[in-house]
UniProtKB/TrEMBL annotation, chains A, B:
<protein>
    <submittedName>
        <fullName>LacI family DNA-binding transcriptional regulator</fullName>
    </submittedName>
</protein>
<dbReference type="InterPro" id="IPR046335">
    <property type="entry name" value="LacI/GalR-like_sensor"/>
</dbReference>
<dbReference type="Pfam" id="PF00356">
    <property type="entry name" value="LacI"/>
</dbReference>
<keyword id="KW-0804">Transcription</keyword>
<keyword id="KW-0238">DNA-binding</keyword>
<dbReference type="GO" id="GO:0003677">
    <property type="term" value="F:DNA binding"/>
</dbReference>
<keyword id="KW-0805">Transcription regulation</keyword>
<dbReference type="InterPro" id="IPR000843">
    <property type="entry name" value="HTH_LacI"/>
</dbReference>
<dbReference type="InterPro" id="IPR010982">
    <property type="entry name" value="Lambda_DNA-bd_dom_sf"/>
</dbReference>
<dbReference type="Pfam" id="PF13377">
    <property type="entry name" value="Peripla_BP_3"/>
</dbReference>
<feature type="domain" description="HTH lacI-type">
    <location>
        <begin position="3"/>
        <end position="57"/>
    </location>
</feature>
<dbReference type="InterPro" id="IPR028082">
    <property type="entry name" value="Peripla_BP_I"/>
</dbReference>
Length: 335, 335
DNA sequence: CCGATGCTCTGCAACGTTGTAGAGTCGTTC
DNA sequence: GAACGACTCTACAACGTTGCAGAGCATCGG
């Protein structure tokens, strides 16, 4: 069906290796021969069979991106950035969804489907520090997120603690004193929730404000509905607060909605700050002040680090690459 | 490095073909032999080299999904559904972003990178009816969207006209009479905007209400900012209206925000309805009434149709597969 | 006891490509 | 004018897998 090197060689009247040489830019070919081959390629509409080429070379020209779920806005935007960065390097991206299920995440690392790719950018949401061992995989991998540190691979992530501390300090600087938190994870020690909560505590401490457990709203997931639910609980508790730190934007947006339903004005009565820098946060009512943790940089850096590992250009040990953050000041929490 | 059939065969003391037979479930193998082979596989951690298998079989076990941009919520959710449906069939998905650029869309169809896949699910946003010819590709393809009809391939899409008519009729039934539109495309004849606008006109006609050009807000893109801008223009025009039909949810959310800033109450003063059934629409303030055009069904159907074509099970001509829609009644437009 | 049948396993070729090695031709150099 | 190197092109093998054909053996029916 599709034309192969053999077909082109026959039409051009040369050996298949010569055709291969033309395609791969081998320099020592007579212009006339080269022309004949190129004409034959055009005539037959030949395109190389990448599968065969890959078998020969051991490379596939594709990388895998594993993340919890594309319908979560943060991961969709991350994926968009990763795919764009990969495309710029001529690499295709195969996307796998794990649903944040630790079993599926473990399974994925052993999946033969990854054989279709040269390496993996992995953003786990179910695995934890105790699973660091399973990250020892026989292919290049770059880890994203903050579930696992000191693993055996490169790791690109954000400055969760510092960024959360900065977000909290920002609220404090604007005069808020009772800052509620939405989205903490009960008993968690690792992961974004724990790190961001730590940043929050650090900022309070620096300001000499005591930590008040009553101000902390716990959730199991980080969906909008969880943010809403968590805020309802806080309101029901009848504690006073003049600001809310949503541990991500989606939570903050859900919480903000509930605040408004309850008749609290944002930002007059309660200031709200989020975390993630989602595009979406710019268009809520009021627009959401948030921390951009450097998503774009993370995507680019992860792709480049992975490609370096694949090409074997780097033989350093596991690298930890940290993105810079910045606070996007909007209406929900003016400075 | 990685173990191959040869290694397993050596360890198990059988021929490589026997190992292959065990892996592929060939029935006539002695249990003892099978056990030895399986032990060897486990010992070596062997996983089949899919590239080689694919070269042999001519299949890759992956499909490509080409869409404008994952950071657009509709496409992110569509991709999530497509990947889930593909995974259920044991197929990987390679995602390509075209940025809605007609040149990149055309280029994509000729890209050798597609050789890594068995077929393509293609959602164009730049190509138009005049490009139907370029869809004649030498691999299985399923078309999504409403830019091109009567192309040479299967086509899965939504009932844009009927759904938009139903949305408009819904507003009319709730007593609204002056319904503004946000997101029309100037001079467009094909594509979602044109079809949905057509449905709007049809519903007006049925109700005996004249079409008023002053109520139509035009935009170039369908981002939130465009919905906001378009609504500002409508307000500046100083025409009366008691409802807004956002040609998609993102536009509707942008428009709703501007309405509220301008002091109009939703839904008391102005009812708002969207189109797409985004998860996000459920959590706005007020929550957005919208039309779910059957996204989930579209994703599943597209994957299954493509896999049918790939396996050659179907030899029918191009099929047009239409999803059912339903109106999700929420706060922004009560019945 | 023979041929037929079924079970178990094997060797070879092939998928389309590229790396290695080398053959043949020509011009250059000493 | 012989040796050398550069240029142009080719043959072969190999990447790891599976389809095909068949070998060797046991079992069974007549």
């Amino acid at each position: 069906m599709a034309a192969t090197l053999h077909d082109v060689a026959r039409v051009a009247g040369v050996s298949i290796k010569t055709v291969s040489n033309v395609i791969n830019g081998y320099p020592h070919i007579r212009p006339a021969t080269k022309q004949r081959v190129e004409d034959a390629i055009a005539e037959l509409g030949y395109t190389p069979n990448l599968t065969a080429r890959n078998l020969r070379s051991g490379r596939t020209g594709a990388i895998a991106l594993a993340l919890p779920d594309l319908s979560l806005a943060y991961f969709a935007e991350l994926a968009a950035s990763v795919i764009a960065a990969a495309e710029a390097s001529g690499v295709s991206v195969l996307v796998e969804q794990t649903g944040a299920d630790p079993d599926r995440e473990r399974e994925l690392l052993r999946s033969p489907r990854l054989k279709l790719t040269d390496g993996l950018i992995f953003s786990p949401l179910g695995l934890g520090q105790e699973d660091a061992a399973v990250l020892k995989v026989p292919f290049p991998m770059v880890l994203l997120g903050e579930r696992i540190f000191d693993g055996p691979t490169d790791h690109v992530t954000m400055r969760n603690v510092e960024a959360a501390r900065a977000a909290t300090a920002y609220l404090l600087a604007s005069g808020r004193r009772r800052i509620a938190v939405v989205g903490a994870h009960e008993g968690e020690i690792i992961g974004s929730a724990a790190l961001r909560l730590q940043g929050y505590r650090d900022a309070l401490k620096e300001a000499g404000i005591p930590f008040d457990e009553d101000l902390i709203g716990y959730t199991t997931f980080w969906h909008r509905a969880n943010g809403a639910l968590s805020m309802r609980e806080l309101l029901a508790r009848d504690v006073e607060f003049d600001a809310v730190f949503g541990l991500n934007d989606t939570l903050a947006l859900g919480a903000m909605r509930v605040l408004q339903e309850a008749g609290r004005h944002v930002p007059e009565d309660v200031a709200v700050i989020g975390f993630d820098g989602l595009d979406e946060a710019e268009y809520s009512i009021p627009s959401l002040t948030t921390v951009d943790p450097g998503r774009e940089w993370i995507a680019k850096t992860a792709v480049h680090a992975l490609l370096e590992r694949i090409s074997g250009d780097v033989d350093a040990g596991p690298r930890l690459l940290l993105a810079d953050f910045r606070i996007l000041e909007r209406e929900s929490a003016p400075a």
